[in-house]
Specification:
With 172 residues, the protein is α/β, with parallel strands linked by helices. 17% of the residues lie in helices and 30% in strands. It has three helices and ten strands, in the order βαβαβαβββββββ. Strands 3-2-1-9-10 form a five-stranded mixed sheet, covered by helices on one side. Strands 4-5-6-8-7 form a five-stranded mixed sheet, with no helix packed on it. The chain is globular. The two termini are 23 Å apart.
Length: 172
């Protein structure tokens, strides 16, 4: 199974369209969204294509392929309009011999992780900064944000397939 991981769309319909196009180009089986799907949040400027109702339409059209997690900007009202679950704080994925722990990142983060086995990879969003590095002996990854990248980060995504994880640029 090929899993496409994205985070922090923040209601940006253009970013959502680009994620879906890349998802299709990659021929991925599942889309894992790490939260902050519809609302831009009080600390962020409005994304350029802020159209949360369009994001709802786009994502609901592929609801059977989405696993969603809750970010700090997601609320019960968002769950009322999205036709796939988004209230879970984290999920585990087993790919090959790798265990992937995925969360939004506002509770657990690369520096304050839950206890995980040695063969685990920790994935989170939240910071809007794409990352793939080893921290305290564990590989930690972040797909960044397609709508509001920070710290000169490029909009990216992660592919998980057969125990391999790769951080890829959304626009290359």
């Amino acid at each position: 199974m090929k899993i496409f991981v994205a985070s922090d769309i923040h209601g940006d319909s253009k970013a959502c369209e680009d994620i879906i196009a890349k998802f299709n180009e990659e021929r991925a089986d599942q889309l894992l969204l790490l939260g902050d799907i519809l609302y831009h949040g009080p600390r962020n400027d409005l994304p350029g294509s802020y159209k949360p109702k369009e994001v709802i339409r786009l994502l609901n059209a592929m609801k059977d392929k989405i696993v969603g997690l809750r970010g700090n900007c997601d609320a019960e009202v968002d769950q009322m309009v999205l036709e796939f679950p988004i209230m879970a704080e984290y999920t585990y994925i087993i790919s090959g011999d790798v265990i992937v722990y995925a969360t939004h990142g506002h509770h657990a983060n690369p520096y304050e992780r839950p206890a995980l086995p040695d063969n685990a990879v920790f994935i989170s969003g939240h910071t809007h900064v794409a990352m793939d590095k080893v921290i305290d002996g564990m590989r930690c990854m972040n797909p960044g944000s397609p709508s509001l990248p920070k710290e000169d980060s490029k909009p990216s995504y992660i592919i998980i397939e057969d125990g391999k994880l790769e951080l890829k640029s959304l626009y290359e």
